[in-house]
Write a structure and sequence with these properties.
Structural class: alpha/beta
Radius of gyration: 25 Å
Number of strands: 24
CATH architecture of the largest domain: 3-Layer(bba) Sandwich
CATH class of the largest domain: Alpha Beta
CATH superfamily of the largest domain: FAD/NAD(P)-binding domain
CATH topology of the largest domain: FAD/NAD(P)-binding domain
């Protein structure tokens, strides 16, 4: 074994969060080691955000012929070449890959070790054959697909969100277990590319989102031919010739459904096994590493960020946690994570975006005197010209106009939610939106209209009318 490597900072995991911490450490003058046993860039680059959005983009293009006639433009139905679709996905990964590459980080001064890591003590670990001792550690090992307990699942071929993009042929009928964001996004994408798709969800589709907003997405999925089986639990799976037969339980009834391929999209489990956490005195709850608001673990030398902590599983949340670590660990500044300002987006068409509390969450938190306002895209001129009128903006606020949350179901919802994220982060009230000048005609005007609706009831009443008449009499 080579001589122990000593460093100021050791980061375990080269996903988005770990890369941010490692880059900051090196640029701030710390001797930094980055350990990665898999692919640089983590799930987001290789099997998550990037490939899924590339596939969604291809699927969106495949639908243009269905929408064009309303604009006076006719296209022939497309011919889907799935090999070229797959090549497009790979090209998107390859274009972004250099930014997350080993060469780039070594150029920043980071020592990169490509091996699996295991703690052997509170201040040291082994990666491959290299022992590393460090003053500070940051664990960012992500999560692995959750595999549900389904009879026969270990006897049949199936895909997860980690390897679905490796399919070489388009499924004739894709069965998806899990109606969360990943299941809905890919279900719609594969349907648009020509596959039959059935989504099974034990509870409700997109169960963490506002039910009103979910209904907009549900209607579109059904209209496009995605079969939704909500309240259905997969019991067993078996081979049936060239197909797979899935047995499911709905209420008190059992049913079977056959498909050519199976995608298990039933969530993700923190990847904390094999890290030797006990040797380092790092506590965890279940598989999730326990952290405080500064992302510090029970070992004061060790921080943890991203999916391995069991919190929200978003790349931008891991990046937010990384910034907290950079501030608190390296700069010794007071910094804590802010989960209440975390935006969440499901990239279906239409998109579903939320930030802050939903109406249900706000009432559960004790806000009984809520004010809820909605503004439909059907009353937005740009949405009308573009024929993208499905959906609406929904606001949840206190009677004094303090923003508690915002949700958007509609075209470009992931972009439109950004202004509400800024408002929550900066502590702005709804009044800030009413005073903002929005460009006409844009979809963003819907946010201003929704905020203006909050004040309209307070102004357009008998008391205000009497005041205006009195002022007019004396002016």
């Amino acid at each position: 074994m080579p001589e122990p490597l000593r460093a100021d900072l050791c980061v375990i995991g080269a996903g988005s969060g770990g890369l941010n911490v490692a880059a900051a450490g090196a640029q701030l003058g710390l001797s930094t080691v980055l350990i990665e046993g898999g692919e640089m860039g983590g799930d987001c680059l290789n099997s998550g955000c990037v490939p899924s959005k590339a596939l969604i983009a291809a699927a969106r293009v495949a639908t243009q012929h269905r929408l064009s006639a309303a604009f006076g433009v006719d296209y022939a139905p497309p011919r889907i070449d799935f090999a070229r679709v797959r090549a497009h996905v790979k090209e998107a990964i390859a274009a972004i890959e250099p930014h997350d590459s080993q060469a780039r980080y070594e150029g920043l001064g980071v020592r990169v070790v490509r091996a699996m890591a295991r703690f052997t003590g509170p201040d040291r670990l082994i990666a491959g054959e290299q022992e590393i001792a460090a003053r500070r550690f940051c664990i960012a090992t992500g999560a692995n697909p959750a595999i549900p307990d389904i009879v026969g699942l270990d006897q049949v071929p199936f895909r997860t969100l980690n390897d679905i993009f490796d399919l070489e042929t388009l499924p004739s009928h894709l069965l998806i277990i899990g109606g969360g964001s990943g299941g809905c996004e890919l279900g719609q994408a594969f349907r648009r590319l020509g596959a039959r798709v059935t989504i099974l969800e034990m509870k409700c589709l997109l169960g963490d989102a506002d039910p009103e907003l979910v209904e907009v997405v549900r209607r579109r999925l059904c209209a496009e031919g995605v079969v939704l089986r909500e309240g259905a639990q997969a019991i067993s799976v078996s081979r049936q010739g060239a197909n797979l037969r899935l047995t499911l339980q709905e209420d008190s009834k059992r049913d079977t459904i056959e498909g050519s391929h199976l995608l298990v999209a039933a969530g993700r489990v923190p990847a904390s096994d094999g890290l030797g956490l006990e040797a380092a005195g790092i506590a965890r709850q279940g598989k999730a590493i326990t952290i405080d608001g500064r992302c510090r673990t029970s070992n004061r030398r060790v921080w943890a960020i991203g999916d391995v902590t069991g919190g929200p599983q978003f790349t931008h949340w891991a990046s937010h946690q990384a910034l907290v670590v950079i501030k608190s660990m390296m700069l010794r500044l007071p910094a804590r994570t802010r989960p209440l300002i975390l935006p969440r987006v499901t990239f279906t068409d239409p998109e579903l975006a939320q930030v802050g509390m939903t109406e249900v969450e706000a009432r559960a938190a004790g806000h009984d005197r809520l004010v809820v306002r909605r503004w439909p895209f059907a009353e937005n001129d740009r949405a009308e010209t573009d024929r993208t009128t499905a959906g609406f903006v929904k606001l949840v606020a206190t009677p004094k106009g303090r923003i508690l949350g915002a949700g958007i179901a509609g075209v470009s919802a992931g972009e439109l939610i950004q202004s509400w994220s800024l408002a929550l982060a900066a502590g702005l009230s709804l009044r800030a939106f009413t005073e903002m000048i929005t460009v006409y005609p844009t979809l963003g005007d819907a946010s201003k209209r929704a905020a203006s609706g909050f004040y309209a009831e307070r102004l357009l009443n008998d008391r205000t009318r009497r005041w205006v008449r009195w002022m007019a009499r004396w002016s």
